[in-house]
């Protein structure tokens, strides 16, 4: 158990005088004598949010007030997420001023009461500076601050919690209770289960222990129940187990085995999508799992040695395992389902400022907050792009000043904050852990002409991170001189100062690459020198200062292009417009980056035109190949390599008190050995934690097919052709063995066929149908799921069976009458204008085949009509065409005459995805074009332009595809997240 210390040096009481005299607050951003609100042009907007799938209005508030430079997306997210008070009542907040005043005035009042300011004048400057930074989107507090501060609710300001559990039933049941209360409040928690004895050890009563994995079931069920009780996102939790625990192999394989179960149930027709109604039948889906590995274990892996698993009660080795084999099992499980991640125990505790109090054993759900058990952390993040000056240099001075002001506010919040348990509250007040961080690093580096995966990019990121943490600890030492060090500092003073020197040494080891990072490194070096000197005299107010969080919702609040430490998601963006509508725009940092790289205006215009049309820079006119790396993104044609993500994390890790919320994404083709390399290299480079995600390894997401090649072209056409050819050969072999086959009508070697892409209830697929010379249907091939999966095999077999039946004379009408109206998941909305709703994939497939190959009379008898025919009925009262000549849809495809609108749309769907890109208007620059009608977020826009699937879940609130943000996912449309950020 972690100890907490309380005693003589507790925080000052309200109104108590302080020996240090309080802080002098310098006015930097605001203007004396002018309130920050008066410098801004404000406008009224209507916020109406709908679920695009159902058409249901999920939120509506009209006439809300925001600065005119805030995007529609930012104002929508703040209005829906952070405005307090019941809708339609006078108590409802209606302006950004309301929530900023609510928070800032609470912080300022507490700062006065607890003696943080030298005078009332300093308090007023603090209030106006903080207000200016918030309304100008320079930084944002984490979501619980906006939810709770200044309201009648408990003043909870922390998003991240670490719990503790011992080897007793009382402790285990208390874990369930505490976790439940945290989830109820919309936050997340993590803990280490390694104190619980293994299933290979005996109880004092003589029986065998259950083991931690069995108790995980109860906690997982609790999390799932609370989630389904009204939360708008999954319960966020982390479960950690030490690598030397005797049940480690069972823990490693837990989620991989459940993933096999999910696949089997999905293939049997159950709804196993993330948030699906049947997903609750499987276990362990509400937590991220991590293995806590030691240097001893990792060295044993390198050397191929055995490793001892130890009894929890006695510490004796009860089993020897092959370290390399165990490491391989970790990688195999991660390859199969993305869990478990790794946390590097010795590295974490080597940077621990409070080892005399207790070891760091756990983390929050996204692995960026790592501290004592029963503790919490409140976060705030700065928007880095706001500190890029007009000459494309980073304003280190103003950045440091902003960091110090924000850090002061964060520490003040602990004075008045409420906490979910008394133990968490006591530890937080005694150690005052803070988590200052940043967002928009990817956009900043691009605007400066620096590649994310380059030495220049990594050096700049390291310098900024070093300056941020140095500024935080400098202010922490200054606060210690004013309001005293944290309660646990005295017993940990030597260790805390040792870690400060480690940060300083890491800063000194960074070498400037080019002039743009030199001033930042110089400022960081000066800050760390002050940290070490001030710390010797004053101590420190805070045990921890910094980390890098996902910044999902608050990133959108600040109109950031990129979240946390992440690179840019894509080069094209989806932008909402005031009054409705949307634009497809090219990332606005691209023209600035091109200018920085020395391109002329006409060259920039041509390159931007090319990006608008293609979504990438490969072969862009006039763009030098050596500059491609500047425009590398998380997704798309030039997606960053996995080690590029690892190296960026390694560059910043030595300058963070905590860790980094980030997932290393790997392509679906990645091997187990590549995952082993990522985990091993992360340890060698000094990371505290690593999580991986292999594309399409999980079932709990929309099915996706058709990844493009590295030119951004849709590979589905050729893939479907090869798929079509293979089953055709099988059909030949099967039919040749049938002795009663004289009536088979063979298809010609070369036949007319069509390929239709479709989406049913979020599941994507492709159908290729081949016709006889008379236009009648002769074969079909369905592609669903990934090649080699059970679903793909079942679809191949089903296609063969239907094709054989058609060639032996079974009428298509018979199949249509049998398979339409069959109900099973996935079901719901489709992307086909002729078949808007479908009760299952088979229901859709045979309705589409009827529309394509049956004459009007046959379809009418079955009640199947096209959109055009239904419209005609509304206008004339009759479905029948004006001229009935018996021509079938299949014959129209073969004829040279223009195809009907519905068929033209299908033909377009079968073409490479580039053909679907909406061209920009004929204007001087192609930075904006009307967004494609089927896209609702940047993730969906990227899919349409590049032909590559974005492997992420759909938002529970608005139904759009989310995008990765650190170790979580965030919805660009409404700000909902899948984690605790």
Q: Strand portion, in percent?
A: 5-15%
Question: What is the alpha-carbon Rg in Å?
Answer: 30 Å
Helix tally equals 30
Question: Termini separation (Å)?
Answer: 27 Å
Report the uncertain regions. Answer: 1-10, 15-19, 228-233, 701-742, 884-927
Structural class: alpha/beta
> Whole-number average pLDDT?
84
Number of strands: 24
Major sheet attributes: 10 strands, mixed
The percent of residues in helical segments reads 40-55%
Shape: globular
InterPro entries: RdRp_reductase_class-2, RNR_2_N, RNR_lg_C, RNR_NrdJ/NrdZ, TSCPD_dom
Pfam family, one: TSCPD
Domain Ribonucleotide reductase class II vitamin B12-dependent N-terminal: 46-137
GO molecular function, one term: ribonucleoside-diphosphate reductase activity, thioredoxin disulfide as acceptor
Describe the structure.
The chain is of the alpha/beta class. Among the domains are: 571-632 and 923-949, no CATH class; 716-911, no CATH class. 41% of the residues lie in helices and 14% in strands. It contains 30 helices and 24 strands. The strands form seven sheets. Strands 3, 4, 5, 6, 7, 10, 11, 12, 15 and 16 form a ten-stranded mixed β-sheet that branches. Strands 13-14-22 form a three-stranded antiparallel β-sheet. Helix 8 packs across helix 9 (323-337) and helix 24 (812-819) packs antiparallel against helix 25 (841-853). Residues 1-10, 15-19, 228-233, 701-742 and 884-927 have low confidence and may be disordered. Keywords: Cobalamin, Cobalt, Disulfide bond, DNA synthesis, Nucleotide-binding, Oxidoreductase.
